[in-house]
Structure prediction request, 270 residues.
Amino acid sequence: MTAPPLRILLTNDDGYDAPGIRKAFARLTAAGHDVTIVAPLTNQSGTGTKTTSAPSIRVEHPEPKVWAVDGTPGDSVAFGLSEVFGGRAPDLVVSGTNHGPNVAGLATHSGTVGGAVTALESGVPAIALSTGGVSVPDPVTTVNAMDPTVDFAARLIDRLRSRAGSGPLLPEGVGLNVNHPVAGPDGRGAARGVAVTFQDPQPILSADFTDSGDGTWNVDVRPGLRPGVRGGDVEAVSAGRVAVSPMRATGNTGPLEHAVASALIAGLRP
Prediction:
């Protein structure tokens, strides 16, 4: 018996008409899924999990199956879940593919990851999808690499569906942050494998501030990439592998961190 198509909400942080989201839309639709774009009207890179606190928000519906929200990825997902999908949650939210990697500290501030987090907060399975090496993205090769990225995403979704059977695609509250490298001289090459990873703790980017003398400060953001931690997403992408990092919407940590915090506050009184 053929599995029914998945109802997928597709968002991103580069904007509803960016190459990555359009390639993802075409590939996932060709795979037989029912895909609807609900994404920011303009580029919202680096907005993280931000959502609007304004009393109103502008939404455009420029073409069938496409909604453009004048807000963040989080706003887009929230609007999509509430209005476009009419309260009947989609089977999956896919956020991306993003132009450039969302590994290490970049993932913490990523609007692409933020869109997936908003879905997870609402109990909807989510995948954040990004394309790029750990160096400054080259526009041409990165866009080319989006094709193998969305091909991988389609295969990953097929795997999730076959493993899930009639159950949820992912464990409750768990999403996947997927980073696909740029492989080959033109970016169209195949990755060297797939690795389950964790988010490398390094920040990657650092800001330097210079006083201009008139009350303003000039900001110079510089990359400061260190060798990737063993088992982390930076190490995997640097080696040309697809990094798949499980993530949660909450900031909860594991038993070791809980034990450390318990030891730190032992004996303290209000």
About this structure: Residues 148 and 170 are 23 Å apart (CA to CA). The mean pLDDT is 93. The helical segments are 19-30, 73-84, 104-108, 111-121, 139-164, 233-238, 255-265. DSSP finds seven helices and eleven strands in the chain.
